[in-house]
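P.,

For your records, the input lines for the assembly:
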Amino acid sequence: MTTHPVGVVGAGSWGTTLAKVLGDNGHQTLLWTRREALCNELNEKRTNSAYLPDAELPAAVEGTTDLARVGRECRLILLVVPSHGLRATARELGAHLTGEHVLVHAVKGIEEGSFKRMSEVLREETCVRKLGVLSGPNLARELAARQPTGTLVASRYDEAFERCHAALNNQYFRVYAGTDVIGAEIGGAFKNIVALAAGVAAGLGLGENTKALLLTRGLSEMARFGAAMGADVLTFGGMAGIGDLIATCSSALSRNHQVGARLAKGESLAAIQADMRMVAEGVKTTRAAHQFATAKGLDLPIVRAVHHLLYEGGDVPTLLSDLMSIPTGAEFAALTL
Amino acid sequence: MRPEDRERAQIEAATRVVDRAVARARSSADLEALVSDTLYHERRRLERARKSDPRTDDDLAFCQKLQRGLKHASDADLRRMLDEIARRFAREIVGNFDERVYRLSTTVIPTGLSLLLSTMTPGRLLSLDALRTGLSDHIKLQGAVDHARGLLAHGTLIVVPTHSSHLDSIVLGYAAHLMGLPPLLYGAGLNLFENRFISFFMNNLGAYRVDRKKQSSLYKDVLKEYATVALEFGYHNLFFPGGTRSRSGAVEQHLKRGLLGTGVAAYVNNLRAKREKPNLYVVPCTISYKLVLEAETLIDDYLQEVGKSRYIIEDDEFSRPRRVAQFLSDLIRLDAKVVLTFSQPLDLFGNAVDEAGRSVDPRGRHVDPATYVMRDGEPVPDRQRDAQYTTELSEAIARSFLKDNVVMSTHVVSHALLDVLARKNPGMDRYRLLRTGGASPSIPMEEVCTATDRVLGALGELPVAPHLGDEVARNDVRGVVDDALRHYDCYHLHPAATRRGDRVFHEARNLLLYYGNRLRGYDLGRSLEGA
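Structure tokens returned:
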């Protein structure tokens, strides 16, 4: 079998972490960034001080700004860019791809306006069919420190999983297979909305009971939203659903959680975003999910309350009272398994 | 298929299937199980078959002979048995399996048709003059006709049409002739060869025989392999991807992938054999009728038990020459056109293909289709991957069907009438509404026009709207309703709806459902609810 390097497009914290895992596994890896200065740092200092401080990149990882080279030399390419930038990057990369490529994205968002999932964007911008999504309880800094975790690679094509498994699986990173691309994408995107709400609760000093309430009701909304998008509800009981939800909503490392916590302390969204180097996907996903839910007539109270807080001038006390005044009834009402 | 290719194709298909089965078998027991399973399915089929048919006796004797030898068979014996069975299946599929049926079908002229067409024997019907003045006036070809024809120079075509009627194959065979395409090879149900009228056309359109009553996996494998080999030999094929005629009247959206999947298999084999023109092109085609010959039987079958309808119907309108004659006569009298719309040709992976036969990605960049089946630079088959490609292709075909469906007056007005009935009888379930018609047997003409206008408005707002038939595009709403009523009033035993005074009486509501279902799949419900 010919050995091709593995491509990672996007050198943020998550892209750099995945490149590090690939390098740890001994795979030649091309880590693409648009920024020349960052590329130089990756290659010369073996670090990414802006996005993944304290981590040293293995020798097998090479930074590059040449997207054509990634397309030409790699057969497996992981796409790890913010959701709003995926379309443009994929279009540019698409000029260098063929039917033999496998593209797996690790982007946890939904395209605003079009409500398209990331794999749909890739399908529209490239000729590649062997598409997949990687999603799970994967906080970048923990994984970069080689703390054990797992992830799901979902694809309609076995080859996408096989290639990802061969490249990424190791003693501290367990790679599982799935076929429900929609479920994995929705789980990864939706949990960020719940993480925002959980962040608010944590910021207010509320305890574990509240967090557990938010998580379980958030999971229920995730399943309803996912089912409306065509997902298999069972996926949300796995790593890309409850697994990711627990990690994101429990950790102060999560960007979305941080945004929620800072909102609870009285900071404005604009001020928080201006201050954050990294993208909190949940902020955009809330708007996309709210638009979709409205268009489809779906009742998603947590999405509605977070949207009210972020975009309709709502305040934190209102968010809390909004959530606590949701009528209760049968726990699994409106959810068909 | 040309006579010189027939034997080659039979042997090739049977040998490949047996080779694969032998390679898969882990022990003699596996091979024995395959032979036993095939014989079991054959015996079950023969038990239900007509006792008077000489073929039944012959097949039974064949099964009994093999069954007797099975007990003490060595590996070599089992391989020989499988060979015998597979070759027998292949012979049946390719043809010439019963010359008596063949002779009968090509010499006897159906009585009803001969009356209708006076001196037009099937032979004369197929003659160019008769066709030009007859069928050609009633068939309209549109869409990517030149594009599809141009692709003949670059590879092999797989035409995939919607399927409403047994007349489809005749209409398509004739359309292919008009387009200058060579005959399209296609698998027709065995029952059609026993229909005297159509068997003539079957044999002239390059049909091979598919016996849907044969349920063994070996038979299905031989059938698929024969289609694969035919594609590799460069025979242009016709697959009905819906598998059978649409029972509900809706444009097919859940397509069968069995035969469609032979495309990728043939393509990989072409690449491995380094054939000069390895490419295969898929041409979706919608066939749109204002009236469908078998509408009554099909919708009744659909409603009898949704989801459990009969796969093979042998006693429909098509088997009654008088009904066929009446249908054709009405078609000619009403000057109704059957519209065939050829969609943008696709490669096997769902990419658009340009006029030079090159695959094009969604951003207009050329793609080498061979790269989809490459692994480390070599074309290789991969069962799971290729099945997914076929799934994606079937989804692309389904989208083409919706986009290039031609909406006719009977479809719009049927949909509108059912919409009015549902509004007037809120809370009544669909089946009761179809059975009883609700509170009133008629609807004022004005309301029918308003409802029709609403449906047309909803269609116009769709992001991807279907085509409109000439009578819909060129007429005002009143003209559309009148045209539909004129068509309802003829051919069917009971009109779907009929006008008396200023009111429209909904009579055969099942037919309204059938024709209205042509708009199912466009999600008009929400727009209509808001109207």
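Two observations worth noting. Residues 96-132 of chain B have pLDDT under 50 and may be disordered. The interface with chain A takes residues 349-351, 359, 361-363, 365, 367-377, 382, 384-385, 388-389, 391-392 of chain B (CB under 8 Å).

Regards
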